Amino acid sequence: MYPDRWLERFFAKDTIALAKVISLIENRAPGYQEILSQLYPYTGRAYKIGITGPPGAGKSSLVDKLTPLYRAEQKTVAILACDPTSPFTGGALLGDRIRMQDLISDDGVFIRSMATRGGLGGLAKSAQEVALTLDAFGFDVILFETIGVGQVEVDIVQAADTVVLVLVPQSGDVVQAMKAGLMEIGDVFCVNKADQSEADLAVKNLQTVLSLAMRNWIPPIIQTVAPAGQGLEQLKETIEKHKAFLGEAGLTQRRYERLRSFLKQLIEDELRVQLWDGEGLKNFEGQLQKVW
């Protein structure tokens, strides 16, 4: 079926067509750029929330419990869950739908697992383009779940309107968050697994560091226990407060800067393809032989 036919079904709110269009974009199929051009005028309505943090922080559990709170308000939710691609086999587990069984039967929820495919910033390479597709489809809320990230994997800040940085006590995550990189990207800090004894100390340490931040918005710290749903209402309310803080002007500016970075990345990627494809690669090999 040709892309135009898929788009016709896409605009008729056919989720099968949505999945197909996402695959065409993710696989860089012929005509995918034209598809994006046709979708872009319909974007800008969804609110995008990034859930990021180190491995084992409980990001999937938070997404799983946060989604029903938006559904209770009759908002539709799309979840983009990224899984790491093996540098050895090129494979990825893509197991998030297994962990979110309760959401699968909800027609107002769409879950898409994506392999990073060499992306090093915590998100899949085409995650932002897929998010535009979900936005154009009409979802109210888009939740990004990154792979487990360290101090410098901060691509999420280029994709989300509000970034939730998830940390846990006992593992040194709080100390890592105090370093450059992660500290700057969090709009909301979430200390998950807060039923552990070190949770209060972790929160106090974060409060001390965040009080020194030179920002108009001082990131609030929310304690949660995701499996029990503890603190999830407060987390959602805090995300809404950040959205209100940004206001229309702040949100527009943030999205403009995001689009600027996104277009810059697209141009760099295209130049990289041109450089290493065909004659460019031959020239490189020729220069390599001269040096050798």
Topology, element by element:
Elements: H1 3-11, H2 15-26, H3 32-39, E1 47-52, H4 59-71, E2 77-83, H5 96-99, H6 101-104, E3 109-115, H7 127-137, E4 141-145, E5 162-167, H8 173-177, H9 182-185, E6 188-191, H10 199-210, E7 221-223, H11 232-276, H12 279-291
Parallel strand pairs: 1-4, 1-5, 2-3, 2-4, 5-6, 6-7
Helix pairs in contact: 1-2, 2-7, 4-11
Report the total helices: 12
How far apart are the first and last residues' alpha carbons, in Å? 49 Å
Assembly type:
single chain
Q: What class, by secondary structure content?
A: alpha/beta
Low-pLDDT runs? 86-93
Q: Biggest β-sheet, characterized?
A: 7 strands, parallel
Q: Quick one: how many beta strands?
A: 7
Defining key terms:
single chain, 292 residues, alpha/beta, seven-stranded parallel β-sheet, 48% helix, globular
Could you provide a short overview of the structure?
The protein is an alpha/beta fold. It is built from twelve helices and seven strands. It has helices spanning 3-11, 15-26, 32-39, 59-71, 96-99, 101-104, 127-137, 173-177, 182-185, 199-210, 232-276, 279-291; strands at residues 47-52, 77-83, 109-115, 141-145, 162-167, 188-191, 221-223.
How would you describe this protein?
With 292 residues, this protein is an alpha/beta fold. It is 48% helix and 13% strand. The protein contains twelve helices and seven strands. It has helices at residues 3-11, 15-26, 32-39, 59-71, 96-99, 101-104, 127-137, 173-177, 182-185, 199-210, 232-276, 279-291; strands at 47-52, 77-83, 109-115, 141-145, 162-167, 188-191, 221-223. Strands 3-2-4-1-5-6-7 form a seven-stranded parallel β-sheet, sandwiched between helices. Strand 6 (188-191), helix 10 (199-210) and strand 7 form a beta-alpha-beta unit. The N and C termini lie far apart (49 Å).
